[in-house]
Specification:
2 strands; 3 helices
């Protein structure tokens, strides 16, 4: 073999080795590219999951805040309503107390009120015998209205008039007084 043949054979070997190296380099490059893309996709998917979870968490926080605000507003409106209702009841009670005090000054109106209250009580109890208690200052008025109340009860219910005894030992508390103790019991 001469130098030209040896040189040609060496060049062929070098070309073959170079071709093998380039193919191997391409394989490594393609493999690295695939691995990069796989890792990139995993990172993107993980970040998407994290973003989605964070979004869901914040959405739930917003919903909870809305529910809390709604509940707070609802409770505030309920409190306003109850306060207004309480004010109205207090006003009506005070008005009724004043009217009752005024009614007790008009003997005819007050006697009719007492008679009606006795009839109403008898209708609620529906007993043949009743013990009636009144204020000491109303005793004579109650005694004068009792017979008429018994007759009215008997005619409304279509029964015999009950026996009504007035308790003359234990009386209801006296009426309220303007300058007296507001905490003492009164009728």
């Amino acid at each position: 073999m001469n130098d030209a043949d040896v040189s040609k054979q060496i060049q062929q070997m070098v070309a073959f080795i170079r071709q093998e190296a380039e193919e191997k380099a391409n394989e490594i490059s393609v493999s690295a590219e695939e691995e990069f893309n796989i890792q990139k996709m995993q990172i993107v998917e993980n970040d998407k999951k994290k973003i989605k979870q964070e979004f869901e968490r914040k959405t739930k926080q917003v919903e909870v805040k809305k529910k809390i605000e709604y509940s707070t507003q609802l409770n505030a409106s309920r409190i306003k309503f109850l306060q207004a209702q309480d004010d109205m009841v207090t006003s009506m009670r005070d008005s009724a107390s004043k009217e009752l005090l005024n009614a007790s000054h008009n003997k005819n109106t007050y006697r009719k009120l007492i008679r009606d209250l006795i009839v109403q009580s008898l209708m609620r109890l529906r007993e043949p015998s009743v013990l009636l208690r009144c204020r000491e200052i109303d005793l004579s008025l109650v005694e004068s209205a009792i017979e008429e109340a018994k007759r009215e009860y008997a005619s409304k219910i279509q029964v015999q008039a009950p026996m009504v005894n007035i308790d003359k030992k234990v009386f209801l508390p006296p009426p309220p007084s303007n300058g007296g103790d507001p905490h003492r019991p009164s009728w």
